[in-house]
Each structure stands twice: as structure tokens, then as C-alpha cells.
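$ run holo --ligand "S-adenosylmethionine" --emit C-alpha cells
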Amino acid sequence: MHPYSEAYYRRELQRMSAVRPMVLGSLVVSRESGPRPGDGYMYVETRRTMLRDVPVLRLDGEVWMSLTPMEVQSTFMAIQLAHGRVGTAGLGLGYFVQRALEKPEVESVIVYELNDDVLQLYRRTFGVHPKLELHHANARLLEGEQWDFFYADFYRHLLTPQAIDDMAALSSANLIGSYHWWSIEQTVLEALHAGLADRLPRWMLDAYLPFLRLFAQHARSRTVQLFGCGAALVEELERHGLGRRNSFVQA
Ligand SMILES: C[S@@+](CC[C@H](N)C(=O)[O-])C[C@H]1O[C@@H](n2cnc3c(N)ncnc32)[C@H](O)[C@@H]1O
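-- output --
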């Protein structure tokens, strides 16, 4: 199903129906309704429809995860690519984890989450699963681990250069088959827009151009949202030896 379709979004929202309003320490989960946000994933949303009963996670009063169309669209590729022994940080509402656990090609999901209340929320909402391990840990300190696929989503903002620093550090301290960070598709789009596709590593183009083609079909009648940071992101990749010439990660 198309990740930008309304049917896909409704199905994903339905899949998270177990998430109930809850307060745990500094964590607050609510279910909220309101006008559809103006941000889609990589496009500007102009439809004026309402969203209903959307799970929202706040930590210390700040929104860390909510199941808006943008979050669902931007998690699509992580779910698609997950296979084998999957590592992920952080847990949030557990949306990615729930979806990855459903996949037969996923053997196990090992979660690293900084906030113990978030781990409690997951246990209370979804219980245990034979393929799942939950760890209370700072993802930036992980070393000596091994995963076929690692999904880094411990960010509040899209396109943070910190995600590239984290990839470089985690990839040199651990053995990782393929690495995906939240909003990597938009990193590729920004680099293409800046005319710098030839400086991206081959694995990034192979993995994400198919998604960008899907996006282009959807975006035809919409405004694409670009931040113009392609050159800075490509330079950040190159600074860490992750550019085309020195790429050491192969998908
Ligand atoms: C955006 S949410 C993750 C959403 C999740 N992918 C989902 O599908 O629901 C980010 C999570 O990362 C956690 N986090 C932040 N910094 C972290 C770190 N250094 N190590 C591990 N987890 C961290 C936060 O507590 C939060 O639960």
C-alpha cells in the first residue's frame, strides 16, 4: 500500500489502537484530535481535514512522537528495510518496533531507550514478545554490538547533522549491516536538489531513490518541502568519511 495514501495512514493509526492516555513520571501520553498539520513528510499539506484520536507522547512537556501522517510516512522505509537482527533507538510510542516485530524476515528487535518511563509505557501497552529485547541505555554509548539493520530515531527534529555524527560513531563502534536514520530520505532529496547526488554514497542512492520516486508521484500536485541544506549535509557525510569515495557502509 502507498505510504502517502489515506488508507495506509488509517491502517497504521488503527494498528496503534492499544496506546491509551497515561501519565508516568514526566511522560504523558494523550490521544488528540485537531486540524491536519501543515507538515507532511517532504511536502506541504494543504488539505484542511481533521485528524482524530492521534496518539501523542510528551516527555517533560515536549512532544517526542505523535502518529501524524508525517511520522507514519517517515517511518515507512525503516519498516520496509528492517530484517534479521534489528537494533533501534529510541522506543517512543513503540510504533516502529510493533511494525518490525510483525515482519517474518525480522528475527529479533533489540531496543535501546534512554528514558525508563518510555520502557514502562511500552510494557504496559504491548507486554512482552518472544522476538523483543528492551534495554535501558544511551544509544550513543553502544559498542561491540552487532545488527543486520539499525534504525536511529532518537531525534526531535528532521535533518539534524547530529544523525550523521551518530551514524559515524555507531558504525565504527559496532558491526552494522545497514543503517537508517529518521529523515535520511529527505537528506538524499536535499542532496539531489543541491545537484550533489554524485557525492552521495552508492548505498544511499540504491536504498532511497525508489522511495523518492514514489514520493514524486504523490507530490506532483503538492508543494515539496525543501530546506536547502543539501550541501551542508553532504559535507557532514564527507567530514565523517561517509561520502561516495570513502563510504565504508554497504547496504
Ligand atoms: C522520536 S522518539 C522514537 C519514536 C519511535 N521510533 C516510534 O516509532 O514510536 C525518540 C525516542 O528516543 C529516546 N532517546 C532520546 N535520546 C536517546 C538516547 N541518547 N539513547 C536512547 N534513546 C534516546 C527518547 O526518550 C524517545 O523515546
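-- notes --
The chain is about 35% helix and 25% strand.
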